[in-house]
């Protein structure tokens, strides 16, 4: 067994994982390769401190309210985050000021990845083209720690590139990876890598080398993914979600030109690394007071720690962004439900419409689901929800089709109502009562 070299002494020590096989680092910690720029850091041009107008939802109704000025001295970190924030909004209009604060803190957090227990994803999603998603990735590429563009990269190539001081993964057009059911199944390994890489000590094991020994590869790395429409639920649940919009009349940005703007952004990257580097152990030991719980707290904790290190107004701004943006995403889930929850509720409605029979043929169930004009099933996958797609949605509930006999039509594949009763009780709200 070949052991990986120990992490640098200034990095926090994390307990090893008992998985057989280990290889040496395939990729040394890569210097950014920045040349010394002659131009000063980018600054905002004509952008207000309060950002754009709020998204249309109950959780961000106060997103564009004026923020009271911070009274007191600002630290080096607070000044630096302010410069980064201004540089980002020079080129991109974010949906509200909390989103701008979150992106700023996420970028800074990439420079302390060895300190984190969880590697938050940044999900940059929008309803259509030309919402600024790719332009935001351009800015991220020049400011995050060791950017790794994953265009056409295979999962084995990516996890062979992740070291103890991991790169920052940047995935553009993520909807082409996870869009249709057929494509999503093809890219299941990529989704697994992105999911496991959210948590430290979740390596992937492959047989490698001439002697075909089990080999452990790291997956832990922060990642930003941009795409049209929501990403898979398992990724969205591990993400700080930025819901981009097209610029409205009157909203202007500076055109991004890499030759002109890259040196200034790279200077910001170097200054972020110089400021945060000495705080690595302090960040690793931090247990900040969080305004949210569970996985949301795991995802937002690195951003909150960076804000606390900076001081000034940033601790309050970070917790406000965390609370409001998390509340909105939870509201989205409650309003629309994940597809795996939605399918249960819709199947219950189909059984009710048929008078709650003991079983329904798969073909009848699918036809009823696709006939719902307000449901997602007519446009799910290619040509609407298929029997295969239905099986995948129900797999986590251990619900599978079986042969049943249905009166005049004889034996058909179908589902019994009793298969769903436990899942309906656990995951679905009680059915609405109708007036007699």
TrEMBL record:
Biased amino acid composition, Polar residues: 41-57
Return the InterPro entries for the record.
DUF3631
What this protein is called in its record is DUF3631 domain-containing protein
- Superkingdom of the source? Bacteria
What positions does the domain DUF3631 occupy? Answer: 243-427
- Which residue ranges does the record annotate as region Disordered? 1-71
């Amino acid at each position: 067994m070949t052991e990986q070299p120990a992490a640098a002494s200034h990095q926090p020590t994390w307990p090893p994982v008992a998985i057989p096989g280990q290889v040496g680092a395939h990729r040394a910690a890569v210097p950014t390769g920045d040349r010394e720029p002659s131009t000063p850091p980018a600054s905002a041009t004509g952008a207000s401190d309060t950002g754009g107008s709020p998204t249309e939802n109950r959780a961000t109704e106060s997103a564009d309210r004026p923020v009271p000025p911070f009274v007191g001295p600002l630290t080096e970190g607070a000044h630096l985050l302010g410069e980064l924030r201004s540089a980002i909004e020079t080129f991109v209009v974010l949906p509200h000021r909390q989103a701008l604060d979150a992106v700023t803190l996420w970028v800074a957090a990439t420079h302390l990845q060895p300190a984190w227990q969880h590697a938050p994803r940044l999900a940059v999603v929008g309803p259509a083209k030309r919402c600024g998603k790719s332009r935001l990735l351009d800015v991220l590429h020049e400011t995050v720690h060791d950017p790794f563009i994953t265009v056409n990269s295979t999962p084995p190539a990516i996890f062979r590139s992740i070291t103890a001081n991991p790169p920052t993964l940047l995935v553009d057009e993520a909807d082409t990876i996870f869009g249709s059911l057929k494509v999503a199944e093809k890219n299941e390994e990529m989704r697994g890598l992105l999911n496991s890489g959210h948590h430290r000590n979740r390596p992937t094991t492959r047989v490698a080398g001439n002697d075909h020994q089990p080999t452990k590869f790291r997956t832990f790395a922060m990642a930003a993914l941009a795409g049209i429409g929501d990403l898979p639920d398992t990724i969205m649940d591990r993400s700080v979600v930025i819901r981009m919009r097209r610029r409205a009349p009157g909203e202007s940005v500076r055109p991004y030109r890499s030759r002109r703007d890259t040196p200034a952004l790279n200077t910001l990257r170097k200054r972020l690394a110089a400021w945060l580097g000495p705080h690595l152990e302090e960040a690793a030991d931090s247990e900040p007071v969080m305004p949210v719980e569970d996985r949301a707290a795991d995802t937002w904790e690195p951003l909150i720690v960076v804000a606390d290190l900076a001081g000034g107004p940033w601790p309050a701004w970070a917790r406000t962004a965390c609370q409001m943006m998390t509340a909105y995403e939870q509201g989205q889930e409650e309003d629309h439900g994940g597809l795996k929850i939605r399918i249960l509720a819709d199947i219950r409605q189909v059984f009710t419409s048929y008078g709650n029979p003991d079983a329904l043929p798969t073909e009848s169930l699918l036809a009823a689901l696709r006939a719902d004009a307000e449901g997602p099933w007519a446009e799910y996958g290619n040509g609407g929800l298929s029997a295969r797609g239905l099986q995948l949605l129900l797999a986590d509930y251990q619900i599978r089709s079986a042969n049943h006999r249905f009166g005049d039509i004889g034996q058909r594949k179908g589902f019994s109502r009793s298969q769903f009763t436990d899942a309906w009780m656990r995951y679905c709200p009680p059915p609405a009562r109708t007036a007699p």
